């Protein structure tokens, strides 16, 4: 039996394997380099990109490394995208998301998109083929929102959401960037639970606090690192029931303060991108409770023996960025919760 | 109502905070120095230690630093224990475990131990107050097994397991070392599930396969990296229903083979200490299924965006080293499953 050689179009993988250049055979996210060619396979979509939203950890790493110098930061981001065919910070391993306009839809794409629609990608930039054509000239090198021109490719198993018309784009983007957190929090929190949200004044934190409340939490404890953040929460009264100012990296101090505030928690949600928060989160959680780690700074080798060392029978979940319907859920939370919207509007420059 | 001042004994912390000398206020594991005084608080237990089992990384570091000189290595270990009040290698940060005989049990200890029982500690030496009285004279300064005389202190929230009389000590210790995996697997797998065990011929893997079966799994797929490991599984027929030889770091290859073997799985258990297994585990798991990561080599920044990038709605659990009753559960599995016992006996030197 002879098999005709497959054409590139026929072997286009739903996962984008055909775009992986180096090393071959790995998933796009694990690849060092992707092929961002604008020619699409029948199951792909090409998007004209107008904005990147850098992941917070990546953004901070770039700022620290280049001491905030905008030209150096801009050059570094451009260099990453040019070299890798995607925006994946080699140090943090993280990416972000993008917005753009659907330019061409392959006849076999299952994403249901139409040319002309304004969308945001909900898969990470770490696995999205990307090519920039304007040298990021319009970016100030400071904001994590990067205006740009170029194109990106969506695979058959990508996730994209059409941008809502009733919300400013930067606001919708900021919500979608962290929409996995409230969706999973809402799944895990049960009626009558005590929930502790570490980083409650932040984006994923405030949405998770609202999600915990919506799922029936009886008591929501908001943990913040500073008086400034506490003031933010006080100004948006009602999002949490009790505010704790604590260093989440100090397990004993955190757990004591959470307990004084009505804990330990049935569900603790870690929404801060600092290392060393595992022990404190575990210790702030009841035996039989659950910790959800949304921080990319979480370490397995700290979390697992940490729990064992504390004889802590807690379920520890890796925050999955994908829960079906997560974008719509998070946008609805923001619409329905003035405190969340207020906090977002303080953090997101229009 | 007047409250009498608490005595030191009354405020003995379940986590051992009262034994922390330097710096004050941190958890025992993070402390530089613990108080190993033999006088116990009402919630503590004193153990007469007969053997330390040094962690492999610590053992190697000591050997390399002192070029294998037994007297220098012995002096170094003694110096660490004397200075720090615990056996925590200051370079590697790691410890090990110990065996000994229960000497005195405080009236408020919740551990359920009785004087005279031979036990192993399942919390790390890095957080266990320890004093050595024989100068380690019986140790050859070479083996990671250190015969010794002295005492150790267990806190209320320590974990210790009584050594079974029907099993050789090295075998029992090997089981206890990985006992968190089968206990959590058993909790997660439901009747009728398809389970995939990555690293099924290993210690935690074979126990997890038996645990999945015991929890009612309808079909157990054992993934191994080599033909040699596959032969091991075939020689212990019945532990798994189907054997897959695959590189777990190759997501696409792994998922394809798991599917051919009856997958994707409802529950995938990762029991191999290799980096880069996140994508394959996620891709081998059904939408709505669960991945349990027991590997310390797992990376949050691979697992979380990985799932999102694959549009995979899977629950991802960090394997907790502690589930109540885990040691007894694992020992019972080994006793009841000749295949598991056979695999362990091939791997554990008597």
Taking the sheet with the most strands of chain A, its summary is: 6 strands, antiparallel
Helical residue percent of chain A?
A: 25-40%
Mean pLDDT of chain A: 92
- Biggest sheet of chain A: strands side by side, in what order? 6-7-3-4-5-8
Shape of chain A: globular
Q: What class, by secondary structure content of chain A? A: alpha/beta
Low-confidence stretches of chain A: 1-10
What is the helix tally of chain A? 11
- Give the ordered list of helices and strands of chain A: EEEHHEEEEEHHEHEHEHEHEHEHH
Termini Cα gap of chain A: 61 Å
Major interchain interface with per-chain residue totals: A-B, 57 and 55 residues
Percent of residues in β-strands of chain A: 15-25%
Oligomer: homodimer
* Rg result of chain A: 21 Å
Number of strands of chain A: 14
Your description of this structure?
The structure is a homodimer of 350-residue chains. Chain A is α/β, with parallel strands linked by helices and 350 residues long. Helices cover 32% and strands 23% of the residues of chain A. Chain A has 11 helices and 14 strands. Chain A has helices at 56-65, 70-84, 169-177, 180-188, 203-214, 227-235, 251-260, 278-283, 300-309, 326-336, 338-347, and strands at residues 20-22, 33-34, 45-54, 96-105, 118-121, 130-132, 145-154, 160-162, 194-198, 219-224, 242-245, 265-270, 285-293, 315-318. Chain A is globular, with a radius of gyration of 21 Å. Mean pLDDT of chain A is 92; it is low at 1-10. Chains A and B meet through helix 7, helix 9 and strand 14 of A and helix 7, helix 9 and strand 14 of B.
């Amino acid at each position: 039996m002879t098999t005709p050689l497959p054409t590139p179009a026929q072997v286009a993988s739903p996962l984008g394997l055909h775009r992986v250049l180096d090393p071959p055979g790995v998933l796009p996210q694990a690849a060092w380099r992707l092929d961002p060619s604008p020619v699409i396979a029948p199951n792909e979509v090409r998007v004209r990109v107008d904005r990147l939203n850098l992941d917070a950890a990546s953004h901070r790493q770039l700022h620290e490394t280049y001491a905030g110098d905008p030209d150096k930061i801009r050059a570094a981001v451009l260099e990453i995208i040019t070299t890798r065919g995607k925006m994946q910070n080699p140090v943090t391993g993280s990416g972000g998301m993008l917005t753009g306009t659907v330019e061409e839809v392959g006849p076999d794409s299952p994403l249901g998109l139409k040319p002309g629609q304004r969308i945001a990608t909900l898969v990470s930039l770490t696995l999205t083929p990307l090519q920039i054509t304007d040298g990021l000239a319009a970016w100030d090198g400071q904001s994590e929102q990067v205006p740009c021109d170029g194109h990106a490719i969506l695979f058959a198993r990508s996730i994209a959401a059409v941008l809502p018309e009733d919300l400013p784009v930067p606001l919708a983007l900021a919500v979608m960037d962290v929409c996995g957190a409230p969706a999973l929090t809402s799944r895990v929190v049960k009626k009558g639970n005590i929930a502790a949200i570490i980083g409650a004044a932040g984006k994923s934190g405030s949405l998770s606090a609202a999600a915990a409340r919506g799922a029936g939490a009886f008591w929501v404890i908001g943990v913040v690192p500073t008086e400034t953040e506490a003031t933010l929460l006080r100004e948006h009264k009602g999002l949490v029931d009790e505010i704790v100012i604590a260093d989440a990296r100090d397990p004993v101090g955190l757990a004591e303060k959470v307990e004084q505030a009505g804990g330990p928690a049935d569900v603790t949600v870690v929404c801060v991108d600092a290392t060393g928060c595992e022990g404190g989160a575990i210790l702030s959680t009841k035996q039989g409770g659950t910790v959800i780690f949304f921080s990319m700074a979480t370490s397995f080798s700290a979390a697992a023996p940490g729990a064992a060392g504390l004889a802590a029978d807690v379920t520890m979940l890796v925050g999955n960025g994908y829960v079906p319907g997560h974008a719509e859920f998070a946008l609805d939370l923001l619409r329905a919760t003035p405190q969340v919207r207020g906090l977002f509007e303080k953090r997101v420059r229009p």
